[in-house]
Amino acid sequence: MDIHPAIYLDYNATTPVAPEVMKEMLPYFLSVYGNPSSNDHIMGWQAKEAVEVARESLAAALKVNSDEIIFTAGATESINLILRSLLLAKSDESMNIITLKSEHNAVLDTCADLEKAGIEVCYLNVDKNGLVDLQALEDKINQHTKMVAIMMVNNETGVIQPMAEIAAICQRKKVLLMSDATQAIGKIAVCPQEIGIDIIVGSAHKFYGPKGVGFLYAKKEVRQTLVPIITGGGQERKKRAGTLNVPSIVGMGKAITLASELMTEDLARIEKRRNDFEKKLHEMLSIQVIGADAPRLYNTSNIIFHGIDSEQLMSAIGSHVAASRGSACSTGKIEPSHVLSAMGITETDALSAIRFSFGRYTTKHEVDAASQLITEAVNRIKPKIVIRLPIP
Q1: Which of 43, 64, 291, 372 shows a CA-CA span of 20 to 30 A to 70?
Q2: Residues 6+ apart with CB under 8 A from 226
Q3: What are phi and psi of 52, to 5 degrees?
Q4: Residues 147/119, Cβ–Cβ less than 8 Å
Q5: Which domains does the chain have, with CATH numbers?
Q6: Each residue of 197-241: pLDDT tens digit?
């Protein structure tokens, strides 16, 4: 199969595995391939030690205790474990969850299932920048509220929620706070204990680790109440059964350590690439950057190309520029993004939006070339104005 390299501007969908991470993983495929649950021989001991080293690496990056980390297949599974545990542990009394209309579908679809089972879910609106109304959040919490679920950084817009203020409200009201920190971890400092977040989730492939592995952090008193949704072996403190994916866990540990070491350097370089990209497009086209007036992650740019159908534009540039029409988890849909709709963006504009996300390996040349390719494609697509002169 011929593979033609494209300009990759879809880092929020997934990142390439860092070479340093791949190198760290290889021995656990080829030579140190024991099962970490094999307690009677050195191959199992070595595998178990590697898993615990990775757990310590994650804990150090998050400034939490290593026994508060549970490995999963990714953030989606982690979210399901947390939310479905509420249902499995539910008594006859009423229970309420509060979340945002702009959350990732991993939260929204799971909450929809919980509603069918009798748990009440309150979906809060966001403002035009995608931010929660803190007073509305506080007003909605009642004696039946068990958990607030609000993502730290929106995957489509990069908008950063005021997590410290949200956490303060939840602590005053004595309710749990879960945050999907998938887009934040490895890019900005995420310290749940310092902020006051009870539970966070993440996926390795968002910070230059392998796909198919992730984790959840839950403080001790929360972790003890979790009811497993995968049973059959008792691994991960009896909260998530199944043989651990040692190579990928090792890779995730290396990836988070590398991301922590390079965070300041990455931020400065990537933010410049993103800002240069937006500036070039502003100079040449009629565009609107979504969430530009809000706190926004430095690598994300969701842009409305006024009067242009995003599907048509991606068809024109997709062979050369990798980007997303909204979340990578929902591509293929023709309806407007639920995130943009929640922000009050019209259907026409939402269907004209494309998300570009930049990363560690994005070059200046790629930014220049991508902006030029996009400009040329938009100019080819946009409706031509025909002036009809009156017939004499």
Answers
A1: 43
A2: 81, 82, 85, 218, 239
A3: -70, -35
A4: no
A5: 8-14+263-381 (3.90.1150.10), 19-257 (3.40.640.10)
A6: 999 999 999 999 999 999 999 999 899 889 999 999 889 999 999
DSSP letters along 327-356, please?
A: -GGGTT--SPPHHHHHTT--HHHHTTEEEE
The active-site residue, picked from 111, 170, 191, 329, is: 329
- The pLDDT value given to residue 232: 92
How far, CA to CA in Å, does 281 sit from each of 28, 93, 256, 309, 349? 45, 54, 33, 17, 17
CA–CA dist 348, 346 (Å, integer)? 5
Contacts 24+ apart (CB under 8 A), 304-307: 304/345, 304/349, 304/350, 304/352, 304/353, 305/352, 305/353, 305/354, 305/378, 306/349, 306/352, 307/352, 307/382, 307/383
329 belongs to the catalytic site: yes
pLDDT tens digits, residue range 70-83? 999 999 999 999 99
What's the CA gap between 65 and 62, in Å, rounded?
A: 9
Residue type, 291: G
Could you identify the residue written with the tokens 């990928």? 248
Least confident segment among 143-152, 199-208, 216-225, 257-266: 216-225
Number of helices (H) and strands (E) in the chain: give both, helices first: 15, 12
For residues 92 and 118, give the distance between their C-alpha atoms in angstroms, rounded to a whole number: 10
Contact of 139 with 171, CB cutoff 8 Å: no
